[in-house]
């Protein structure tokens, strides 16, 4: 009687909160996120993002800073207050190129600060760095 090796994988679908008020960019981002099998909730404004955060803890937040109602930094502060500073990964997607905004990203401990316009390849690379086990190339056989 020989030994049998069983191969199995544990599949975890990460929750992603996509905060983006540009509908076209949000759609493209959702397509990119689908390539990594991420569960996505899209919020086009700060209030919708806060409503989502009341009931859900995302694993990843894709955060536009210039959104209606409450800016991205305000949403991030609320998420950190609710779930803790290291409870999720954050990728900022912003047109703000100035050093002050980028320095704030460092102080807020964001995982990546992508300046718009960015490519979907750059977005996927940032996601792969933030959540390395969602990249199909990193999953062992």
Structure report:
Helices cover 38% and strands 17% of the residues. By secondary structure, the protein is α/β, with parallel strands linked by helices. The chain has a single domain, classed as Rossmann fold (3-Layer(aba) Sandwich). A 5-stranded parallel β-sheet has the order 2-1-3-4-5. The longest helix is centred in the N-terminal third of the chain and has 12 residues. The relative contact order is 0.17.
List keywords for this structure.
141 residues, alpha/beta, Rossmann fold, 5-stranded parallel β-sheet, 38% helix, globular
* Uncertain regions spanning at least 5 consecutive residues: 4-9
Total number of beta strands = 5
Overall CATH class: Alpha Beta
Q: Per CATH, what is the topology?
A: Rossmann fold
Count of the separate structural domains = 1
The CATH homologous superfamily? Response regulator
Task: Please identify the oligomeric state.
Answer: single chain
The structure class reads: alpha/beta
Shape type: globular
Number of helices: 5
Order of helices and strands: EHEHEHEHEH
Examine the secondary-structure arrangement and name the CATH architecture.
Answer: 3-Layer(aba) Sandwich
Q: Helix proportion of residues, in percent?
A: 25-40%
Q: Can you list the strand order of the major beta sheet?
A: 2-1-3-4-5
Provide the residue-averaged pLDDT.
Answer: 88
Strand fraction equals 15-25%
Radius of gyration, in angstroms, nearest whole number = 17 Å
């Amino acid at each position: 009687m020989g030994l049998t090796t069983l191969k199995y994988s544990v599949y975890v679908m990460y929750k992603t909160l996509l905060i983006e008020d540009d509908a076209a960019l949000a759609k493209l981002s959702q397509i990119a996120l689908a390539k990594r099998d991420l569960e996505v909730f899209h919020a086009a404004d700060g209030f919708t993002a806060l409503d989502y955060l009341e009931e859900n803890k995302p694993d990843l937040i894709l955060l536009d800073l210039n959104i209606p109602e409450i800016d991205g930094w305000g949403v991030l502060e609320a998420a950190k207050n609710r779930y803790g500073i290291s409870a999720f990964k954050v990728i900022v997607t912003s047109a703000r190129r100035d050093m002050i905004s980028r320095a704030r990203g460092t102080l807020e401990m964001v995982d990546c600060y992508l300046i718009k316009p960015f490519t979907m390849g750059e977005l996927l690379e940032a996601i792969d760095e933030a959540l390395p086990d969602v990249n199909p190339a990193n999953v062992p056989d």
